[in-house]
Structure formats: C-alpha cells, structure tokens
Amino acid sequence: MKMASTLDFSRGKRAVKIGLDKCGGPPVKSRRVSPDVDAEFWCKAGLDKDGFEKRYIDDTIGFGVFATQRFQKGAFLLEYVGSRITPQEAEQLSTGKRKKNKFYMFHFTWNGKHVIDATHTLDRLCRFVNDEKKWKCCYEAKSF
C-alpha cells in the first residue's frame, strides 16, 4: 500500500499535517477553534485556507476570489500578505501600473492609515479580494 506524501493533500491539509508532525501528537477530534487561534495558525503557516478559488470576472475588474464553501460569521478567512506602505507611496506606485491594471493594494486603517501592496505576492489568494466599501467587505486587522 502506497503511503500518502504531503503533496497529495490540499494546501490546508498539508499545513495541518505539518503542524501535527511538529507537535508529535495524534489527530484529535476536531472542535470549533476560535477565529483568533485559526488566524494565527494560518498566518504563521503561510498558507491559504481551503474553500476559496480565483475566478476571472472581466477585462475591467480582472480576477476575484470567491468562497466555494460556507463559513461562519466572524470566522477567519484569508490573510492579505504584502508590503505595508503609506497612502502616498501607494499613489506613486499605482500611477504607472493603473493603465496596465497590474497592481493589488488593500487600503486599511490601523494605527493610522496604511496600504498593503500585494503586487509581488504571487502565491496568495487574498490579493484578489475586493476591498470596495460599497460591497460591504469587512476585515479585521490582526498583528501576531
């Protein structure tokens, strides 16, 4: 019988397996994990959670990320990874890229106003999340 390698699993399941291997404990019956503990696990693992996919929307918008399963209200979903820059730096960087529609920036307020530039973060889904206020996108800033 062939042993399953970690590459046979999805990214989320690989992270769980790696975590279990590190602690040396057997799998335990799953129980509800608090959103803060869940967020810390996925952020430190550097992986996206299962249950999302990138889809092409149109030539104006480009790509977006969509949930492929239901999540509980208040649950941790994805980490937005990139360089933290000021709004002024974001404006300078996006001026040349705006014509090509090749920039991914998330504007947020935390200890002042900041922007996360995910343009060069190619392996994470959250850069395709819409941060438009009119679409009621909610987020919570966390620091680990």
UniProtKB/TrEMBL annotation:
Q: Which GO terms describe its biological process?
A: regulation of DNA damage response, signal transduction by p53 class mediator; regulation of transcription by RNA polymerase II
Q: Boundaries of each SET domain copy?
A: 62-137
Pfam families under this entry? Answer: SET (PF00856)
Gene Ontology terms, MF aspect: histone H4K20 methyltransferase activity
**Which top-rank group of organisms is this from?**
Eukaryota
Instruction: Look up the record and report any one GO term of the cellular component aspect.
Output: polytene chromosome
Q: What is this protein called?
A: N-lysine methyltransferase KMT5A-A-like
Species of the source: Crassostrea virginica
